[in-house]
Amino acid sequence: MIRYIPNTLTLSRVAAIPLLLLLYPDFKHACGLVIFLVAMSDIFDGRIARWYKVESKFGSHIDPITDKMFDAATFLILVGGGVLSPWFAVVIICRDILISGIRLVALEQKFSIDVHWSGKIKSLFTAPAVFGLFINEEFLWIPCHEGGMFFMWVTLFFTLYSGFIYLNDFRIKYMKSVA
Fold first, then answer.
1. How many Å apart are CA 140 and CA 150, to the nearest integer?
2. 3-state helix/strand/coil string of 148-170
3. With b meaning 16 or more CB within 10 Å and e meaning fewer, what string describes 108-135?
4. pTM beyond cutoff 0.90
5. How many CB atoms lie within 10 A of CB 65?
6. Beta bridge partners of 37
7. Residues 32-65: pLDDT tens digits?
8. SS3 of 140, please?
9. Radius of gyration of the chain from its Cα atoms, rounded to whole angstroms
10. What is the pLDDT of residues 99-127, one digit of tens each?
């Protein structure tokens, strides 16, 4: 039974997208809770799989895809709600597509682009950014919009930084593979 938990948690990110579309903007606090729970699932799915030795190829391939789907959906919902400037969403979504694309090219060339700590930091800051912007008002004396924008700027920095790292890693390995 435990072997299904990691992939179920991973797929919960896809299942959460229509829920957010239905709830936002009328139920901002519920959206914030959904985002928090989904962010927690992203932390635990891989750890559970490794801990219980139930890692799968499906899980390792679908996890980054569901992460990008969830992030793109939340950014687009926020842009549509007038809470986030479109250029944030465009830069982050385009970077994610580019990195996914170079990973596919790398696989075809028989090498891989390893996950870098800066990409993990990007993901770490995305969750509170989106959480704060979905709530977008003071909540429990916390200025959620301002906090969300702070985390969004940090997310943008690590989006660009990690994108550079991945592109450089790809360039070096690609040159070696065709030499």
1. 18
2. HHHHHHHHHHHHHHHHHHHHHHH
3. eeebebeeeebbebbbbbbbbbbbbbbb
4. no
5. 14
6. none
7. 878 877 877 777 888 888 888 898 888 888 888 8
8. coil
9. 17
10. 999 999 999 999 999 888 898 899 889 98
Structure tokens at 78: 């926020």
For 87, the token pair is 């250029």
Instruction: Examine the pLDDT at 136 and tell me if it is beyond 70.
Output: yes
Domain 2-178: which CATH number of 3.80.10.10, 3.40.190.10, 3.30.450.90, 1.20.120.1760: 1.20.120.1760
**Is the pLDDT score of 132 beyond 80?**
yes
Running DSSP on this structure, what letter comes out for residue 137? S
The answer, yes or no, to whether residue 144 has pLDDT greater than 90, is no
Identity at 15, one-letter amino acid code = A
The full set of domain ranges for the chain reads 2-178
Instruction: Please report the beta strands in the chain, taking only residues with DSSP state E, as ranges in sequence order.
Output: 138-139, 142-143
CA distance 166 to 173: 11
C-alpha to C-alpha distance for 123 and 7, rounded to whole angstroms? 19
Q: Token digits for 55?
A: 């890692």
The owner of tokens 């200025």 is 143
* Overall residue count recorded for the chain in this entry: 179
End-to-end CA, the chain? 47
Is the omega angle on the peptide bond into residue 86 within 30 degrees of 0, that is, cis? no
